[in-house]
């Protein structure tokens, strides 16, 4: 036996990793689980939805024959989907209203209320309230028979009327503005605190009014916050579901695209059609996000 070779093997040691490599390995281990979760539960689902949108997929009978763009053609021939798409677009009106009110509240808190913690807490309460709870509460508020709104103002308005497509949209927009105003105000308040006071002092020296300061200083300097709120607001608005399911309880005048996907896919067993609607919605969200980012980059470059 070659004892010298054995001795050399025993004395062999694996090279130690450098601090940089150990830190990198630790980082990769930390993100491994989220990456696996994304690959299994998100990316795989996305790929499956895209594939099944081009088939006549039926999980009960295990059928998935290729049909091309038939599902997309049926989708735009379906009046329920067209109504859901129009309703979803109309409900996005709450975004500019909420952004405007949130900015005005932030200006009020900073300039007039001097950053009152009590008022900030009161305005921010809707942001920490469950979306389901908000929808249930506002469903009672707008109730025709015993709702607070009708009883307090002496009205007799059927906000959930099946024949009037406008009233329930007004109710949902009002609810969504109230629900988002807290987070919008806090974000704008944080942005306003980053605006140097020297700008306002210089504006007062030249005789600029409060309104002129708002238009020429506050709003332009708050553009990053406005951009963030618009992007996230549109993405969230296009994916709204609780408005139709909980607040409107399936009222056809308030159905959204996501509610249509749920009702057709789960309720109607039209899984391929629901996949086509999901893919279409995802493409719309991606396209709108790209347009907003491109516009924002153009504004930054001054073109």
**Tally of extended strands?**
0
Question: N-to-C terminal Cα separation, in Å?
Answer: 81 Å
Helix proportion range: over 70%
Mean of all residue-level pLDDT scores? 86
Poorly predicted parts: none
Strand/helix succession: HHHHHHHHHHHHHHH
Largest sheet: none
Give the C-alpha Rg.
27 Å
Helix count equals 15
Q: What would you call the shape?
A: globular
Alpha-beta content class: mainly alpha
Per DSSP, what share of the residues sits in E-state strands of 2 or more residues? under 5%
Question: Describe it for me?
Answer:
The protein has 303 residues and is mainly α. The longest helix is centred in the N-terminal third of the chain and has 34 residues, at 19-52. It has helices spanning 3-11, 19-52, 70-77, 79-91, 94-112, 117-124, 131-141, 148-153, 167-192, 197-205, 210-221, 223-238, 242-247, 257-267, 271-301. Helix 3 crosses helix 15 (271-301), helix 4 runs antiparallel to helix 14 and helix 5 (94-112) runs parallel beside helix 9. The N and C termini lie far apart (81 Å).
Summarize the structure.
This protein has 303 residues and is mostly helical. It has helices at residues 3-11, 19-52, 70-77, 79-91, 94-112, 117-124, 131-141, 148-153, 167-192, 197-205, 210-221, 223-238, 242-247, 257-267, 271-301.
């Amino acid at each position: 036996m070659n004892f010298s070779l054995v001795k050399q093997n025993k004395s062999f040691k694996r090279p130690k990793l450098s601090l940089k490599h150990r830190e990198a390995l630790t980082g990769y281990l930390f993100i491994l689980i989220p990456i696996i979760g994304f690959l299994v539960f998100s990316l795989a689902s996305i790929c499956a939805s895209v594939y099944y949108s081009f088939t006549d997929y039926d999980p009960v009978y295990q059928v998935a024959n290729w049909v091309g763009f038939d599902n997309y053609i049926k989708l735009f021939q379906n009046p329920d989907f067209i109504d859901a798409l129009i309703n979803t677009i109309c409900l996005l009106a709450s975004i500019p209203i909420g952004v405007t009110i949130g900015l005005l509240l932030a200006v009020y808190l900073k300039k007039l209320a001097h950053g009152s913690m009590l008022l900030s807490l009161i305005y921010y309460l809707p942001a920490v309230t469950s979306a389901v709870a908000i929808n249930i509460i506002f469903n009672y508020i707008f109730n025709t028979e015993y709702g607070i709104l009708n009883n307090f103002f002496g009205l007799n308005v059927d906000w959930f009327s099946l024949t009037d497509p406008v009233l329930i949209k007004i109710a949902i927009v009002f609810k969504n503005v109230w629900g988002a105003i807290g987070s919008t105000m806090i974000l704008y308040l944080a942005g306003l605190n980053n605006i140097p006071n020297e700008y306002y002092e210089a504006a007062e020296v030249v005789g600029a009014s409060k309104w002129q300061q708002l238009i020429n200083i506050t709003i332009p300097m708050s553009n990053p916050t406005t951009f963030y709120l618009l992007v996230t607001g549109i993405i969230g608005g296009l994916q709204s579901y609780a408005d139709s399911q909980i607040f409107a309880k399936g009222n056809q005048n308030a159905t959204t695209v996501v509610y249509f996907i749920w009702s057709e896919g789960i309720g109607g067993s039209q899984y391929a059609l629901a996949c086509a609607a999901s893919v279409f919605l995802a493409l719309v969200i991606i396209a709108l996000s790209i347009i907003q980012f491109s516009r924002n980059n153009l504004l930054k470059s001054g073109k």
